[in-house]
Queue: 4 jobs
Job 1
Amino acid sequence: MELKKNPKADLEKRRGLYLEIGLVVILFACLVAFNIKSSDADETTVFQREAVQEEEEIIIQTQEQELPPPPPPEAPEVTTVLEIVSDDKVIENELVVNAEVDENTQNIEIAPVQIEEEEEVEETTIFTVVENDPEFPGGMEALYKYLAQNIKYPQLARDNNITGKVYVTFVVERDGSIANPKVLRDIGGGCGAEAIRVIKSMPKWTPGKQRGKAVRVQFNLPVNFSLQ
């Protein structure tokens, strides 16, 4: 059986038209694709521009340095001008003193001022340190010799074999006499009383001096008691 082809179904006649339509569709699709890529690129660019953060401007505050105050203005120099005037020139407003004595002028006698001498007040202060110490006649060697010759060893101290030093204190008065002898440390056996007896019997000393003036001085003296 022979197949018969419908002349309307023959596509060969419209092949060129379909080819043109296909080319137009492809060209349109390409244009649409290019437009989409360009729009995406624009959007990406805009997004990137918005994402950039601007750097904050840092303002550094500087403290103003205080300037030193200006120096005070210098005082103008004052110069004194001396005008030398000859003896013949007449000076106005000159003060003239009349040295002539009038009969009615009374002589005024000025009595000299008498200064009463202050009575020397006896000093009662007792010094412990002075410029010139009081001294026994002949010095310290003479003092120890005097003590050795005049001390009588107490029998009670001798019987009990008591030896040692008795410390006494006394005041050398302004005239060199001895006053207020006292025992500072005693060893017993009557040694302290014997030391006081010998000190009271001492001759006058050379008094101590302060600023060249005799004063009362406190003096401490050790008296040695030893058995031989």
Job 2
Amino acid sequence: MKKPTKKMVAPLVITVLMVAYYAGLAAAAFALRPPVIVCILAVVIPALLGGLMIAMCKQRIQEIRSGEEDDLSQY
């Protein structure tokens, strides 16, 4: 594995785990049968958070590919 490829594994693993966690929360909302508004919120909020995780992962992969592994050194 090339060095940049190894650095991409951690963000991808964390993203997959977090999206799976959010999907589990949404599935649990349907299994518990709460009121409709709670069910809607329990699906919409995790979906938004999952989308945010995917967007952050894409941004981090772009940073790694461009050579900005240590973005804290800019500050």
Job 3
Amino acid sequence: MQKIIEKLYNQRSLTEEEYGKLVKGRSREAAEMLAELARKRALSVYGSKIFIRGLIEISNYCKNDCLYCGIRRSNKNTQRYRLTKQEILDCCEEGYPLGFRTFVMQGGEDAYFNDERVCDIVSEIKKRYPDTAVTLSLGERSYESYKALREAGADRYLLRHETASCDHYARLHPKELTLENRMRCLNDLRSLGYQVGCGFMVQSPYQSIENIAKDLKFIEEFSPEMCGIGPFIPHLDTPFKDEKAGSAELTCYLLSIIRIMKPNILLPATTALGSIAGDGRLKGILSGANVVMPNLSPQSVRRKYSLYNNKLYTGAESAQALEELKKQLSSIGYDIVCDKGDFNKTNI
């Protein structure tokens, strides 16, 4: 294990088989070693900076029926909502004075938010706040759609690949969704000049160590600017309602591996990680993460954007409790900074 970890640190690359051995051989000692090296890597590129993103959950309508997702179209128990353009701009107006310089518009694949509407909102945000970055996380779209959004001013796009294994992908999604098209989307985004984010669920149903190894190798080779991973958490209104949740420990272990592999990457300590463990996001930072995403969405809709059970809704995940979040991070030696937190292109 030590030899594999040393190879990862020195070469920033392993074979798929070696990634599998690293995951299979997880131990407390290996986790501590990886976390220490990951922190060293993050500090060498970003120092003690933690970047904040203002999350705006714009809609919980979704045309898709993914088996793990609480806002899947078949869920009749979900109270659906859409934010108006003004409500989205109000979220930005609240967040900007607090220091947010990146706004993340996230939502289900909702046909209401077509290119015309999203382009209008993006361009207005950039007009009002020219020193900010706009990140979109609105699922699979056409090349032409991604191009229009980019030309309107969108800087980044988050699209988790969920799993890099075709068979596993098929067991998590309806037949009309394919890994091939998901990869097409990621490559389109890359070709259009977005800063691109991918990622996967940790310990999702049917996931094997070999699947995780393939995910890690894909991240190594695709080399995204951002990567969001978080533990799988079941939702009571999905076919996976009785499945076991993923662990914070394995998630943090994988965060460390990704940070060592990609020193420059922007790596969030996700809401899911904070939901599965009270100190999950702090553990994520100590494992190499350097981004947190407080929620700027109106309080009235936060419970409605329910992707999984027991999601954080109040407390340090919200913008209103930003000072508390700053104190928590300061207690472990990190500082929230008020800038866009661009991908650091410096060679390591």
Job 4
Amino acid sequence: MPFICPKCRQPLFADGGSLKCGLNHTYDISRRGYVNLLLSQESSEKRHGDSHEMIAARTRFLDSGAYAPLCDAVCDAAERHASRNMTLLDIGCGECYYTSRIADRIAHFDPTVSGIDISRDALIAGHRRLTADLAVASAYDLPIADSSVDVAVNIFAPYDPSELRRVIKSGGALIRVFPLERHLWELKQAIYDDPYENKAFDTALDGFETEEYRRIGYDIDLKSNEQIRDLFSMTPYSYKTGDRDEEKLNRLNTLRTRVEFALITYTRK
């Protein structure tokens, strides 16, 4: 595994039910499938990451197949860059819907598969999907060795460009996915009096060359209030929506909405 000690930055190695470094810093591996590499002074300030309820909603929604075309495209991109005994890192892996499907696609390459997320609940759910090295950690301070990653994936998740440059090998690949301006536009229209488009931003990354930019868009039909609420709950809107607008959500039983994503594959210079 590519994990390093978050305190001294030395490599971690397995020792029974723990990970240890050369200075004997020790991190227990949970029976629920993850190791906590977020330093205690960082994690004690507040609860981090998505809640159990948000993870459950996202699991139900993704398992419905609504985002399967996007997942297939991500798997295609990862497979194009796969190599024997490669290391795959999912930064912000969540409940590992995408991670598990990429791992299945490239299994014949005998990869090392790792994922980090700030949410312990997400990693518990992720462990139910696949066997991988999973760690509670911050995308802004990756407990990952320098130049150790062949393919990194970052899907709807925070990232730090300097950390990406540090951990991805020269010639390695980075696969990013983010929502485009009118992603879920009809859902926004149904809830908000004055909906606004997602902000466009510069996709260039220092130290990386853009290999491919793909726009992926299609309509999805949501056929129950539960499915609509599951989709809503896995978006940032769930944090920001007031009671009046959320009441509109409660009255929706069917909805067709557009999903629009950008999928960018970069090569590390």
